[in-house]
């Protein structure tokens, strides 16, 4: 598994790190034949859930960790690197509209059902109304590799200079920006922001979570998930990955080469617990547990209130799993061969799987009340039913 690393604008970008990054992501940089890094073969299991494809639709070409589907008001939204943005009926997969824009996209998609936003490779932020017409187009202060967050009347992006910027959802006017110092190196992998109760919650490359008022950009809280350690820039990478998880008053985040940490936001963001952990994809959660695959794709569950380990599942080791999507019977993850696997929430036992094809699944799956949306490597969007 290869994860790209980028330096901020002030540092030379073309440093040759590919071999080292592959090693950091859990692959051998010395030999692809090292058994420690070989993906586990698929094993037999006693089926405990029915996993079926309800519908599939083409939403463009390509995919990537910077692309994730969104859902709002019974509609699904997706974007692909070739500049295609699509709205679909969540129940049937019928395409309502599809826009093809230039230049190619670097991240997408975010939507609240009124405004749908994507980011282009030149730093442009492009917003559409819910009929697929372009509303506005503006520029961020740098390249954006994280899907925009849309809600509370704003479109929020985080650019490569570690600046979080908000634009008016109707006009595209810049409203506020918040910037924090960044590390010398940052991991380019799956990361998302959320807007909840008028707050923008975002991870930062320095192992922190930040909560910002969506309307005025006021910083309401910052919490330390992980502290960078090590003698080199590579060893000190401790980026927040995936989407911050909010369950009632509890907010959780996970870092690469760091920790899983949960906070009680009802008590001023006081840390509840932390567990040493390293993930490149992020967390899933319910009101009982948080779930995550580590760098070697061993899936773990921890009690959300105490951090006590609940179970671990190693049968999918090195299969380059996505972040988990939590559904009623279990948690769903995608892998490097286009399979989706369902694990029991109670003990991590394998319950079911199916293959979507289209290459590696790297976009985070999204749980909805109709099933789980999975964006494939070939540019298809599928709704998976789990019963």
Automatic annotation (TrEMBL):
Pfam families found in the cross-reference section: PQQ_2
InterPro entries attached to this UniProt entry: BamB, PQQ_b-propeller_rpt, PQQ_rpt_dom, Quinoprotein_ADH-like_sf, WD40/YVTN_repeat-like_dom_sf
Cleavable signal peptide: 1-25
Domain Pyrrolo-quinoline quinone repeat per the UniProt entry, residue ranges: 82-313
Subcellular location: Cell outer membrane
Keywords, sorted A to Z: Cell outer membrane, Lipoprotein, Membrane, Palmitate, Signal
Superkingdom, natural source: Bacteria
Protein's membrane topology: Lipid-anchor
Stored PANTHER family: CELL SURFACE PROTEIN, OUTER MEMBRANE PROTEIN ASSEMBLY FACTOR BAMB
Function: Part of the outer membrane protein assembly complex, which is involved in assembly and insertion of beta-barrel proteins into the outer membrane.
Similarity field: Belongs to the BamB family.
Quaternary structure, from the entry: Part of the Bam complex.
Protein name: Outer membrane protein assembly factor BamB
């Amino acid at each position: 598994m290869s994860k790209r690393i980028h330096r901020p604008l002030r540092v030379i970008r073309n440093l040759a790190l590919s071999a080292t990054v592959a090693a950091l992501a859990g692959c051998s940089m010395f030999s692809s034949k090292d058994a420690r890094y070989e993906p586990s073969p698929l094993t037999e299991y006693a089926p405990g859930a029915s996993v079926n494809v309800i519908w599939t639709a083409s939403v463009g070409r390509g995919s990537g960790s910077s692309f994730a589907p969104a859902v709002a008001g019974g509609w699904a939204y997706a974007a692909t690197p070739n500049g295609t943005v699509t709205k679909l009926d969540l129940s049937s997969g019928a395409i309502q509209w599809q826009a093809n824009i230039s230049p190619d996209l670097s991240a997408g998609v975010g939507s609240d059902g009124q405004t749908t936003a994507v980011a282009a490779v030149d730093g442009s932020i492009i917003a559409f109304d819910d009929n697929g017409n372009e509303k506005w187009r503006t520029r961020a202060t740098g390249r954006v590799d994280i899907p925009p967050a849309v809600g509370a009347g704003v479109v929020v992006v985080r650019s490569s200079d570690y600046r979080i910027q908000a634009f008016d959802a109707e006009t595209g006017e810049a409203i506020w920006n918040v910037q924090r110092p960044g590390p010398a190196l940052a991991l380019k992998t799956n990361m998302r922001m959320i807007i909840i109760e008028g707050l923008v919650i975002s991870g930062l490359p320095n192992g922190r979570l930040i909560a910002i008022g969506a309307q005025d950009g006021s910083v309401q809280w910052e919490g330390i998930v992980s502290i960078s350690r090590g003698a080199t820039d590579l060893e000190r990478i401790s980026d927040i990955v995936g989407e911050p998880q909010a369950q009632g008053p509890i907010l959780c985040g996970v870092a690469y080469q760091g920790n899983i940490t949960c906070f009680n936001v009802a008590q001023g963001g006081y840390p509840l617990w932390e567990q040493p952990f390293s993930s490149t994809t992020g967390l899933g959660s319910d009101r009982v547990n948080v779930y995550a695959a580590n760098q070697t794709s061993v899936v773990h569950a921890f009690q959300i209130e105490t951090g006590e380990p609940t179970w671990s599942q190693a049968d999918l080791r090195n299969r380059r799993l996505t972040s988990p999507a939590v559904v009623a019977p279990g948690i769903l993850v995608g892998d490097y061969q286009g399979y989706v696997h369902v694990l029991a929430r109670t003990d991590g036992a394998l319950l079911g799987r199916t293959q979507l094809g289209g290459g590696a699944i790297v976009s985070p799956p999204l749980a909805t009340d109709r099933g789980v949306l999975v964006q494939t490597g070939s540019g298809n969007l599928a709704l998976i039913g789990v019963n």
